[in-house]
Backbone:
């Protein structure tokens, strides 16, 4: 069966790199800072020479100036272990009518292509990567590996998410990814990069639990990138024609008939407050927060972010 993922849209990013901002743990020498110190790659600091150890790394120039023997230590670089997390609850399939539109993807389409780009970049860097699809549980979890077979497996799982949305097609209906994120935090034994794609459209209690889960990841010393994916024109601004509309909650099925213009101002203020709360939480815990408006198009969001992150490194 032909893949729904357009490989050309993914491969245009092959020359970019995804680097970790903090130390990570891995198995092979690669691009990223390791918490383990040795005598390779990049100078880190001096330490006093201990009697009996090798003199190979003594800084003799410093000895000549201080009459004391110091050893040069270097910081290893290692491969990255990246866990990609995609919220697959029903609200991520909004807006349904624009599904598959290359110019303006819906939220799940953005997440799928962004995840595919990350996998392509990590594979080329010889880094390890895994995919977790979450709703109210961990629906799919692939191993964190750098093998080509793992990339094929992940592409197969991502491709399934691009199937046309049907309310009765088995798509999880609830955004409750907090508990699965807690499980992931416990399962990822090594310090890793965790990239989360979610619209975070939850009630107040679940939002607090989501914040706790993300803080749990940070407590376990994982670096976190949070892609907050929304359709701003409709989900934040409530930009609809000035006539009565029937709104159907994609997760609960609840129906509500109203005129958007009558509520747009209050609704917009409430949504912007919620977005600001999520952003403030991310900044407070040193989480890389990426505000995604799918209406801007895939390349106009992801490419500037990757370039910006590359300059920060």
Residues:
């Amino acid at each position: 069966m032909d893949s729904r993922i357009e490989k050309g849209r993914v491969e245009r990013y092959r020359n970019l790199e995804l680097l970790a901002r903090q130390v990570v743990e891995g198995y092979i020498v690669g691009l990223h800072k390791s918490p383990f110190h040795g005598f390779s790659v990049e100078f880190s600091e001096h330490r006093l020479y201990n009697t009996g150890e090798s003199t190979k790394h003594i800084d003799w120039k410093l000895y000549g100036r201080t009459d004391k023997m110091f050893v040069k230590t270097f910081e290893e670089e290692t491969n990255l272990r990246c866990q990609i997390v995609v919220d697959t609850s029903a609200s991520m399939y909004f807006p349904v009518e624009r599904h598959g539109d290359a110019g303006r993807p819906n939220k799940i389409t953005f997440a799928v292509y962004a995840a595919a780009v990350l996998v392509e970049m990590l594979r080329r860097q010889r880094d390890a990567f895994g995919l977790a699809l979450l709703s109210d549980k961990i629906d799919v979890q692939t191993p964190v590996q750098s093998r080509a077979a793992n990339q094929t497996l992940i592409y197969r799982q991502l491709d399934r998410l691009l199937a046309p949305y049907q309310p009765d097609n088995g798509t999880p209906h609830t955004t409750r990814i907090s508990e699965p994120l807690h499980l992931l935090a416990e399962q990822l034994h090594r310090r890793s990069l965790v990239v989360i794609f979610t619209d975070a459209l939850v009630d107040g209690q679940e939002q607090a639990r989501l914040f706790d889960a993300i803080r749990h990841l940070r407590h376990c010393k994982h670096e976190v990138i949070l892609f907050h994916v929304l359709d701003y024109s409709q989900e934040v601004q409530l930009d609809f024609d000035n006539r009565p509309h029937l709104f159907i909650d994609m997760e609960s099925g609840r129906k509500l008939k109203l005129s958007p213009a009558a509520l747009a101002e209050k609704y917009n203020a409430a949504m912007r407050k919620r977005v600001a709360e999520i952003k403030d939480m991310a900044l407070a815990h040193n989480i890389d927060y990426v505000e995604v408006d799918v209406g801007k198009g895939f390349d106009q969001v992801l490419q500037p972010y990757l370039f910006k992150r590359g300059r920060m490194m």
DSSP finds nine helices and eleven strands in the chain. The first strand starts at residue 32 and ends at 38. The mean pLDDT is 84. The CA atoms of residues 63 and 69 lie 5 Å apart.
